[in-house]
Design brief:
The chain is mainly α and 64 residues long. It has a domain at 20-61. It is built from two helices and no strands. The relative contact order is 0.06.
């Protein structure tokens, strides 16, 4: 599937979003919040795995 990209400013997006009916605006706000929470959790998880890459933490490389 091909993607279409647009060069749109934040102000243009806001202008369009604020024209949405209330029901659609609330649904969009919920969807954005869910996405933001997912991204934040993924970033936190990534920081937890960095310690495994430290050479001093060789217990993870020990044979079983």
């Amino acid at each position: 599937m091909s993607q279409v990209t647009m060069d749109v400013s934040l102000e243009q997006v806001k202008s369009l979003v604020f024209q949405l009916p209330v029901k659609d605006l609330l649904e969009l706000a919920y969807t954005i919040e869910e996405r933001a929470e997912t991204i934040a959790m993924m970033q936190l998880a990534e920081s937890g795995f960095r310690e495994w890459l430290e050479e001093s933490e060789d217990i993870y490389d020990a044979p079983a």
